[in-house]
Structure formats: structure tokens, C-alpha cells
Amino acid sequence: MKNPDFHHALKILRDVCTGCTHCMNICPTEAIRVRNGKAELIGNRCVDCGFCFRVCPVNAIIVEQDDFNRIFEYKIRVALVPAVFAGQFPDNISSRQIHSELMELGFTHIYEVEQGVEVLHEAISEYAARKSEIKPLISSFCPAIVRLIQVKFPALVDNILPLKPPLDISALYVTRQLIDEGYDGDDLGIFYVTPCAAKIAAVKSPVGERQSPITGVINMDFLFNKVYRRIKQGNGDSCKLPEVRSLTARSVLWSLTNGESTHAKGRSLAVDEIHNVISFLEQLENEEIRDIDFLELRACDESCAGGVLTTSNRFFTVERLKKRASKSAGEDDNTKPVEKGIIHYKNRLKQEISIEPVQPRSMLKLDEDMSEAMRKMKRVQEIGKCLPDVDCGACGSPGCQSFAEDIVQGYSNLNQCVFVQRIFEKKGILSAEESLAIMKEVWGDDKLDKNC
Amino acid sequence: MKFEYDIEGGNFSRAGFASSEVKKKLRQLNVDIQIVRRIVVALYEAEVNVVAHAWYGKMTVDIDEEKILLILDDEGPGIEDIDLAMKEGFSTASPEVREMGFGAGMGLPNIKKNVDTLKITSEPGKGTRVEMITYMKGGKNEKS
After folding, report:
1. Considering A106, A203, A221, A394, which has the largest number of Cβ atoms within 10 A of its Cβ?
2. Does the structure's ipTM exceed the value 0.90?
């Protein structure tokens, strides 16, 4: 395969993994197999949605982040914080208090990710008016969805809006603004506080951009724990409060479900949770679904409020953000210093807002060569006839169909199926000892050396 | 390679299932993504026609390296006047069917647009046979 390696933030700790198959069974792109008793990730298929991380019962899957102390390599240490971060905390803790604690932890500047929203919103409207023939336009907001379309729905890549998400726009703005204030660009470290694994992958190996404007990524749960502990211990009393920055109601709600679709022109729709998105895109690709102008698709249930690195109950996070938005809606937008600040940079930012067209990288083909692919497909069909269709996962593949494909691709063997083993034993092709040895290869010794 | 799928007349909740299965196969065979897209659009239209009008139908897909042959055979009321059915906007669908988003009357012309050849034969009172061919190379896909 000529695909370059993709950075994945999700890592499986082999020492901790028990090979329980929970991750393999939930993975929406069938990117996990069990070998030697441990889960393994297939890099080209993984879209970093993080569902495996969510279901792992022993915390063997981690989201790899940058070392927090890396921030101190920079003189100017910017925390780029999404609105859902403040939404993690109980109601009685103000965002000023949270931001003050971030300063105490070592950041010199705090910016909210969503300040790029108004610039983006304008750019989306202009793009949609210019490209009215593309229906529907699919938001590029959620990086797991962009990757999902690349690998699973290659015919839809041209529908993805070729515009940067608010995070990148804000990062560019912050960089420009601080440089204009007289800081040296080399002294700037911009650190994004992420609610999910997909955003990390997007920063480390961006789609449609050569390099991300973000220096490093810090996991939201890690920072939440640090900040909340400080607040709980009452260290925050003497905090010097940074400048109050406020956002428009639209910006506050942008990362939640319906945050974008509400403001799109024409007929628009929001779909959240990756399995829902897959069945929706399936129908869209068949043109069973038509006449939609704009689609907001998010990998997580309740969008970023349900990100895999969030701590708080996602429904409460949504409630808090909605409260904040309704407060913001009652104010005059002209008094919002942040929105006013970024407006000065609007024209410059809009020149940089485009990304290159997203390329398909289909993972579905059995072979590049069609006649070879046909030969393999026939093999898959033949093997399928021998399999029990119970999708038990005991072979180390997520189901009988993918097991048959794995065999044809040379990643697996027919005698790894426990049902086929029984058939072979009955026919005298395989002995019970041989079956046991095969199962040890898939599951390791521990699971089969038990005294029952 | 040949694949066959049954289509149940009158069951709209299953409409599209066979088309999606064919889509998966074509992708696995590394058929050009634009060809896959067009075939699936045509197949879905044809599948929904069977669901909407016939009692029972069968979809047969025959793929070789040059072309994809798609046949939908149904047992149903048949089409009285095929030329009329081919006209854009002509529809026999009931208001209930239209309310579900089906039966806008562009089925057959839309199929024709998305495949290289389309042949419809029908015997009123017995059934309809829709045959479609799309070529891997040199078809409409390359001209457009």
C-alpha cells in the first residue's frame, strides 16, 4: 500500500490488554484484530473515533498526548481551550476561575477555540453560495468523520467542505495577533486542550493541510483533573483573573449537535454518533437521501460534549453550554472583545481558510488489480460457506465475513475458527492437541492453560 | 462473478438493502468509485420500483473485467406503455408512496442516465425485466 503512515493517538498497551474483544466488536471500521491474546490496530483503517478507548474494561487503550511540561519550552504559552472544557465543571465554578487556574498551571494566554467560528461561518455561507451544485456539503468540523469518509465512503470526499475547522482558524489568529503584539514567532507555543483522540490525529497528521498551526495537544481529562483539584483544594483564591473573553451564542454552541446545521442555509441536518453517521452516509451514497444542502456529522453522541476525553456527563455539559449561550444571546455582540479582536484579522484569515481537496483512501478493496480482486472474492465466498455466521470473534477477527477476508489476505487461517476445528476434528484432519495449539496462537497461553 | 438478491414487494423498510450489498462488492473489487456511485443510484431506483410495484423480485449482478450486468426480474403488474414510463415526471405511485419520498416519477429516466445501456421488457399482468449494463472503460462515466 502506498498510503503513508497515519498518526494515531490511540495506543494499545500490550501488557495491560486481556484480549477481551470489546474494542474489536465496537470498532466502526473493523480496524482491530486479536493476535497472541492482544488487540492490534490496523493503521489504515482506524479513524481515531476512540470508541475502543471508551469500551475497554481494563484501560489498556490510551490516548497519547504531549508531555505537559513541553509548554515550558516556550516563552509564550497559549492554551487553546474549547467551550466544552468549561462545560466539564460544576455550575458554581466560573470560566474565569477555570482560566485563572490554567494561568497558575503555567499558561500565559488563554484563548477559546470557538472564536474562529464567526469567520468560518461567513466563509461557509460564501462557499455554499459559490458551489451550489454540490449537494450536500458535509462539514469538515469532526476529523474522525473526515477520515471515515476517506476510508469508507470515498465517493463522498468531494462533498466535504474544504475549509479549516474553528480550531485551526483560531490558532492562526492567535499566532498572527501575538506576533503583531511584538512577540517572536519562535517563542510561541500553542497548546490545544482536546476532548477527543481524532483531534490529536488531525493536529499530528492533518488532512488537506501541510502542517498544523498547533504546537502540541493536551488531553482534556488530564487538564480537568489538574484544574479541578486546584479549585477543590482552594488554591485559586489569590488567582489573578485574565481578561474576560466572551463568545457569541452561535460560537458557544458550535461544537454541540446542531451547532453548525442550525446556521446553514437551505435544508440542513445534524447526525451524531459514528454508527448513526455510517448508516446515514450509506443511504446518502445510494441517493436514497436527496435534497439536503448541508450536513453536520459528528462521531460522538452529543458531539464534542460526548468526546472520549471528557469527564462530565455529556448531557450536563450541553445544558451548561446552552445556559452560557442564552446569556450571551442577551448581550450586544459588539461588546464582545474576542469577536471584535478577530474581526480585524478576518480578511487575512479568510485567505488562509481553504484546505486542499480531501483525497479518498479506500480500505475496502481486496486488491488493486480487479481480476485478482475477483479471484479473492470467490475465495471469500467459498470460505464463507464453511463458517458458522455467529460472529463470535474467537478467531481474532470481528466477524465471519471479515475473518474470511483476513484468510484470503493471508492474515488468518481457516483452522482458527472454533467451529471449523470441531468439523476438522470429526473428520480426523485435526487433533484436539493441534486445535489447542492453534487457539494458543490467537489467544496466548494464559487463556488455555487453565485448570478447569 | 454472479450475485443474487431477493427483493420483497411492498416492504419499503428493506428497500436499498440489495443495492448496498452490491455496492460493497463493487468496492471490494476496486471498481472505479464514480462507476460504483452511478450503478448504485440506478440499482436503488430499480430496486425501489420492484418494492413499490411488484410482488416479488430478484436482482442478479454479473461482474467481469469489462462490464457489469444488472438484471431485475419481477413478478408484478408489468408496464403497459414503456415509452410513457420513461418520461420524466410520469408516475403511477399512490399518494401514500409519494409521502414516503418515493414515486416522484423520475425512476426510469434516472436509471437510464446512470448506466450505459438499459433494456426494459414487460408483460402486463405478469412482470417486468430491467437489464442494465455499465462498462468499466469507455462508457458514460468516461465521457462525462
Report:
1. A203
2. no
